[in-house]
């Protein structure tokens, strides 16, 4: 258990006593979307919060987002099966957060992979509560070692995106305690997390921001959490109910259900003053921990390491999972003259998923750049997309668009009144999917003017992101119109998944001025419109591009074929509807593999897909969403760097095999009727073979499990020692996994793991400590020890367990 950071509670009391009721209540709602209101009487500076599962973005979201460090996705981090690696990742993110003035990082996301269709699957760690808990503890300790608060989220039952703000997760107490709460409990009891985010959804009939049983009785009283419970953005909807339930901070601000209404509730006796004081004390305690009281220095300035990018590259290598290899990998440059780099993700690399976690990376290494550096300049590399499965275009960039007035990269935005007169104008940089635009009362229409530098003749495509009535005018062509309206008042849906419409127009190479007229949708409950532009160069049809890719494959000595998803396919606020790769990607893989059996397929995706062709390529590598340095990491693995990853979630052979597929509530209820049978536990119970099992991942060497010993007992905890030998001809990394095979009908479950490294022919010992809590079960009287005979099994995955021993029982 982590020792808690010492805070001078008497000092907090003095500061609390110096505040008026109004100052106290003002502190309990955000000053704006990303900061808290400073209180001079308490010596409290403003606290800044930032999204952060893939790296701190800073206090902004949208078009004004500054460049940031983009780390591999959380599912990639979990694939390392390494608490120390999670710590390093958290520490690097924490150092970056301090550098940009962020006090509270809104990460990690520890909801489980209940269904592979979950939209934020990429942002969560695993289908297993123990693996999730271990990665969570390491990450939080790393972040908070820098004096930045981690925020574990979303507490709890927020495992789906469909109707996420309103659904009621019906979860029995045993399942809650044994499956969904353990990562949060470990975050509090072991990592001493400083903040917890309450989810949008309800659990067993009560919305989480009003759920006093879970927020107060379990989180604060039973687990001893002394930090701040913050609402998810716009999750708090009531005054008295949320205040007395245990919520401490409403975000965003300055509006919300508290404010003057909470002051009135205190004055009328509906909310005790002690409840307010407890909330304020928690925020002051958080401020003390992050160095925001009297502008304290905190733990001192520690710069972000100068080699942070190479470390991020190594993190992506450690998370990469080699699923199959018939000997093609690693590629040997000396035997190659020509390599074909093929696939939609080879030309449009997916570094991250979509939603609030998104950051604008400072740069992105492309697959061609990564492969070129790895193979050298003497090898010819051809590039072909093969197919185009994307639903949206990439953002219009400053290299293509220039402001016709100033000549700067970007666009000119004109604000017009109802008579078409110019009210004002401004320059905008379009290099983001969208930007929010404040609409003055006299503005009836917007025009976006830009000069496009077209590099090729043919059919060009321009997309408009946002809502309203759009008219595109291109010289020499009739105007093109489209109307896209937003239903309802869910600003989050529009922010996170803005609608897009694509206009196609013929044009010749050279410069052409275009104008987009926009009549914004005016019946929305916010005074802004959201607008963005995308662009795509002329390209062939899927049939033409596929034929060119197959021809290139046949002429190459080896093929690297990259398929997968993107930030539109996997995104917050929307669950997937299928596990099939979008478009004609499956067909592309089949045809390329038929043309050249020396094909290595790289799947660039944050969560599982069904791969009906998995046996066709000579090698299959899963890269996840690997961050800004990910393409270099992929090239490293393809050319010989040891792939470190093991699957943190089960990959199904078919959708019909998935234990929990639907994420759609029925009459507002999401029934967790499967209990604890999710992921590999359900596959084991049913006897269903997945495509690739939980824990699976290959090495570039081979391993023998020679011996293991178990000491301790099932009631007091176990110590497991496993002897493994590297039987191959090169150094490698192995993840030794230990599972409990219980008596009765309960399926086996992960209870521990350890990563080891060994040189060729070297023997190493893996040590795994299993605390008694991990072995307990939840009963009518709470946590109780297991009874009956049990077995401990160790091996390379849940489906490849090499050694078995009886679990010692108390003497």
Q: What's the CATH topology label of the domain at 9-61 and 68-290?
A: TIM Barrel
What class would the helix/strand composition place it in? alpha/beta
- Report the end-to-end length measured between terminal Cα atoms: 27 Å
How many helical stretches?
20
Q: Assess the beta-strand content as a share of residues.
A: 25-35%
Question: Which regions contain 5 or more consecutive residues with pLDDT less than 50?
Answer: none
Dominant shape: globular
Would you count the extended β strands for me? Answer: 37
Radius of gyration: 27 Å
Give the overall average pLDDT. 94
Name of the top-level CATH class of the domain at 9-61 and 68-290 = Alpha Beta
Q: CATH superfamily assignment of the domain at 9-61 and 68-290?
A: Glycoside hydrolase, family 3, N-terminal domain
Describe this structure in words.
The chain is an alpha/beta fold and 811 residues long. Among the domains are: 9-61 and 68-290, TIM Barrel (Alpha-Beta Barrel), CATH 3.20.20; 401-536, Sandwich (Jelly Rolls), CATH 2.60.120; 701-806, Immunoglobulins (Immunoglobulin-like), CATH 2.60.40.10. Helices cover 24% and strands 26% of the residues. The chain is built from 20 helices and 37 strands. Strands 14, 15, 16, 18, 20, 21 and 23 form a seven-stranded antiparallel β-sheet that branches. A six-stranded mixed β-sheet has the order 10-27-26-25-11-13, with helices on both faces. Strands 1-3-4-6-9 form a five-stranded parallel β-sheet. A hairpin with a 2-residue loop joins strand 34 (777-779) and strand 35 (782-784). Helix 16 packs parallel to helix 17. It is globular. The chain starts with 8 loop residues before the first helix and ends in a 5-residue tail after the last strand.
């Amino acid at each position: 258990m982590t020792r808690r950071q010492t805070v001078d509670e008497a000092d907090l009391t003095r500061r609390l006593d110096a505040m008026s009721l109004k100052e106290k209540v003002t502190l309990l709602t955000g000053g704006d979307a990303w900061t808290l209101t400073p209180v001079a009487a308490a010596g409290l500076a403003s606290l800044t919060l930032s999204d952060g599962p893939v790296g701190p973005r800073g206090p902004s979201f949208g078009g004004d987002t500054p460049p940031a460090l983009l780390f591999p996705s959380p599912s990639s981090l979990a694939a390392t099966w390494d608490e120390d690696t999670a710590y390093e990742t958290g520490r690097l993110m924490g150092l970056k957060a301090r550098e940009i003035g962020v006090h509270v990082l809104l990460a990690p996301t520890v909801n489980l992979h209940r269904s592979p269709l979950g939209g934020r699957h990429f942002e969560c760690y695993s289908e297993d509560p123990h693996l999730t808990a271990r990665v969570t503890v390491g990450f939080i300790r790393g972040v908070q070692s820098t004096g930045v608060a981690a925020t574990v989220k979303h507490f709890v039952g927020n495992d789906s995106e469909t109707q996420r703000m309103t659904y009621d997760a019906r979860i029995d107490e045993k399942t809650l305690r044994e499956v969904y709460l353990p990562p949060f409990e470990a975050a509090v009891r072991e990592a001493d997390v400083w903040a917890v985010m309450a989810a949008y959804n309800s659990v067993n009939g009560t919305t989480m921001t009003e759920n006093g049983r879970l927020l107060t009785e379990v989180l604060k009283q039973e687990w001893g959490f002394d930090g701040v419970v913050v609402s998810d953005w716009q999750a708090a909807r009531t005054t008295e109910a949320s205040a007395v339930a245990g919520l401490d901070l409403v975000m965003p601000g300055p509006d919300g259900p508290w404010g003057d209404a909470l002051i009135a509730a205190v004055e009328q006796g509906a909310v005790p003053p002690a409840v307010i004081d407890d909330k304020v004390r928690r925020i002051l305690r958080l401020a003390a921990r992050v160095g925001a009281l009297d502008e304290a220095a905190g733990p001192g300035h520690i710069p972000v390491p100068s080699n942070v990018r190479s470390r991020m590259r190594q993190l992506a290598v450690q998370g990469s999972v080699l699923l199959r290899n018939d000997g093609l990998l690693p590629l040997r440059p000396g035997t190659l003259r020509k390599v074909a780099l093929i696939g939609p993700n080879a030309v449009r690399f997916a570094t991250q998923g979509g939603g609030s976690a998104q950051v604008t990376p400072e740069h992105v290494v492309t697959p061609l750049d990564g492969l070129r550096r790895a193979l050298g300049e003497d090898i010819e590399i051809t590039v072909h997309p093969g197919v185009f499965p994307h639903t949206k275009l990439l953002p219009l960039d400053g290299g293509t668009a220039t402001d016709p007035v100033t000549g700067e990269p970007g666009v000119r935005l004109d604000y017009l009144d109802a008579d078409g007169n110019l009210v004002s104008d401004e320059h905008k940089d379009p290099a983001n999917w969208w930007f929010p635009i404040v609409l003055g009362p006299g503005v009836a229409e917007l025009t976006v003017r830009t000069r496009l530098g077209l590099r090729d003749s043919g059919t060009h495509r321009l997309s408009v992101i946002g809502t309203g009535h759009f008219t595109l005018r291109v010289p020499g062509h009739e105007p093109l119109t489209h109307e896209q309206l937003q239903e309802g008042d869910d600003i989050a849906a529009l922010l996170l998944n803005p609608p897009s419409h694509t206009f196609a127009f013929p044009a010749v190479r050279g410069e052409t001025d275009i104008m987009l007229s926009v009549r914004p949708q005016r019946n929305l409950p916010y005074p802004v419109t959201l607008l963005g532009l995308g662009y795509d160069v002329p390209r062939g049809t899927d049939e033409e591009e596929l034929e060119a890719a197959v021809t290139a494959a046949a002429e190459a000595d080896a093929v690297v074929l990259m398929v997968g998803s993107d930030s539109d396919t996997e995104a917050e606020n929307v669950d997937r509807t299928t596990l099939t790769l979008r478009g004609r990607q499956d067909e592309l893989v089949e045809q390329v593999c038929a043309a050249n059996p020396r094909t290595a397929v790289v799947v660039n995706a944050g969560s599982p897909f069904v791969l009906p062709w998995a046996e066709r390529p000579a090698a299959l590598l899963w890269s996840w969403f690997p961050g800004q340095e990910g393409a270099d990491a992929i090239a490293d693995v393809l050319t010989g760097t040891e792939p470190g990853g093991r699957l943190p979630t089960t990959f199904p052979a078919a959708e019909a095999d998935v234990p929990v597929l639907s994420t759609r509530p029925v009459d507002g209820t999401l029934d967790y009727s499967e209990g604890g049978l999710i992921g590999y536990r359900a596959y084991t119970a049913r006897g269903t073979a997945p495509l690739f099992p939980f824990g699976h991942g290959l090495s570039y060497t081979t391993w023998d499990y020679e011996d293991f010993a178990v000491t301790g007992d099932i009631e007091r905890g176990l110590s497991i020692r496993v002897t493994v030998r590297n039987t191959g001809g090169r150094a490698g990394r192995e993840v030794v996994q230990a599972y409990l095979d219980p008596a009765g009908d309960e399926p086996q479950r992960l209870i521990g793991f350890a990563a080891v490294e060994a040189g060729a022919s070297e023997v190493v010992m893996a040590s795994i400590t299993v605390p008694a809590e991990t072995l307990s079960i939840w009963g009518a009287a709470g946590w109780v020890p297991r009874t009956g005979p049990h077995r401990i099994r160790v091996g390379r995955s849940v489906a490849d367990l090499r050694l078995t021993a009886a679990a010692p029982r108390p003497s």
